[in-house]
Specification:
Structural class: alpha/beta
Radius of gyration: 24 Å
Largest sheet: 9 strands, mixed
Strand content: 5-15%
Length: 674
Amino acid sequence: MTLKEFQDDIRAGIPDVLPAPKPYDAAINHAPKRKDILTPEEKKLAIKNALRYFPAKHHRELAAEFADELKRYGRIYMYRLRPDYEMYARPIDEYPARSRQAAAIMLMINNNLDKAVAQHPHELITYGGNGAVFQNWAQYRLAMKYLSEMTDEQTLVMYSGHPMGLFPSHKDAPRVIVTNGMMIPNYSKQDDWERYNAMGVTQYGQMTAGSYMYIGPQGIVHGTTITVLNAARKQLQKRGGGEIPGMLFVSSGLGGMSGAQPKAGVISGVVSVIAEINPKAVHTRHSQGWVDEVHTSLDELIPRIRKAREQKEAVSLAYQGNIVDLWERLAAEGIDVDLGSDQTSLHNPWAGGYYPAGLTYEESNRMMAEQPEEFHRRVQESLRRQVAAINKLTAKGMYFFDYGNAFLLEASRAGADCMAPDGKRFRYPSYVQDIMGPMFFDYGFGPFRWVCTSGRPEDLATTDRIALEVMREIRKTAPKEIQGQLDDNILWISKAGENKLVVGSQARILYADAEGRTKIALAMNEAIARGEISAPVVLGRDHHDVSGTDSPYRETSNIYDGSSYTADMAVQNVIGDSFRGATWVSLHNGGGVGWGEVVNGGFGMVIDGSDDSRRHIEEMLLWDVNNGIARRSWARNEGAMFAIKREMERTPGLKVTLPNIADDTVVEEALKNL
């Protein structure tokens, strides 16, 4: 397809003449069939809802086709409308647009749907089994058409994948406002998602999928590296010494973000063994170089693990099989596992997020659609077995941490032995409780991201150099409380190029605080103005950050004042970003730990070397981080109290309410008198 044909296709939106039906491409990794949950009346409504995108002359043909899709797949994806052009992040100048900012957003959307990036690209799902960019291909086409037409004085409103339309605004307003899955609170159960998504009225945006800000597994490699490194350091400290090389890390998941684990393990210097039951996911990560070796037999894998440990290799081994079988074999063999976790998508346990032991991948996919109750029973049985094996290994000294994917939550619901003696807490901490929260989020460090819209590796290398220079300069006068974090991040960015982290767009992630993010962004903006970077840069972050997410089982699991079940922070974050210069903002129900379990918000900001970009950087990034630090400080988190006091000293106009700390004995004495 020529560039002109590509641009014309985008401008056309939903074509007046229907394209021919497309064959089902078996070579692509597809979403599993969703269970049949709609009543006959609801199925009728789902088809009527889908037909809203088309004139009446097409309804008879499409009604039959959409009914067939609903029966075959449990959803109406409108496969026929999938574009013929290859889906990837093209250079920004190739997109037809009246607004440079809109062109950058089109680039980010295409990156989220790139088959090298997305988990189920033809179902418009980026990661996590159900994290969708759009519900169907008509929504994609209409959104891209609107983006090609909009000016810098319009805003596109997106309702759970549906482009509601372009509305007049102004140049400092967001170009796009996204909401995903924002349900009335009593309608956020798992089956509610199944039902209302099947009817075509809502979707699960995960975090960065429905926010157009996913950058492939690199997005979580840095956070996973930090987690594995510091988990290893905790183990060595507990043992009174030793070294990281030769330590064994075991986990599961090579799909979307979980695919980062083997790369993070190698960067950390450990032997990592990651189980994955989906052969296509294994092949993808191996072909991309994110997994060193693939093993399909435990009889071959176990001796390989022993050899790797003895020789202290930094190597990643994929086990193409069920994680339960791996854990049980490790426990039976008496292998000392140093670090353990799990990254199956247990926020989505009944629709492809977790595969039970004793069934093949194909058998599980059939059972979840045709025998959902039996599949439910098998999943819970496997979770009990998995936890039992993990408990045997932790009794021998393994440090196990929940990776915030609802593993312990779903295991507890299955009756697994994963609760602490008091019956109120989990036996094992989340990685946020032990590592990410107190060491990083409380001090304002989180997953800052940027994407070079030129698509040129040379521009990415320039941004890496700028970030490294800024971080080294900050390190010279940094207080001791954050020197360790800066050192780890300086090492990360200095090695980023050689670690070959790019999948899809020319993007980078770097954990930084508000000072680091602002100074890096300002330096990049100046470099664009000077022509050292050839095109605009998109700034963003993971929602899994200091301020972006309210999630009691993950991001806010180290907040102990009772407010971890509130969602003020995420909502305030999005509102504040929207009037301080974000190019687009997003607010989602669900993400990471599950539908109804979390509210999260994100942003994207296009910088182009202008004074407006400088102003937006200075106004928005300070708020985006310090909103979360202030909330964490009010929860009496020691690191956050230090960080917000330091920020108030250097930022005129910032005045945050600080907590007074009550003495436990005073409170306990008062309670005795009741």
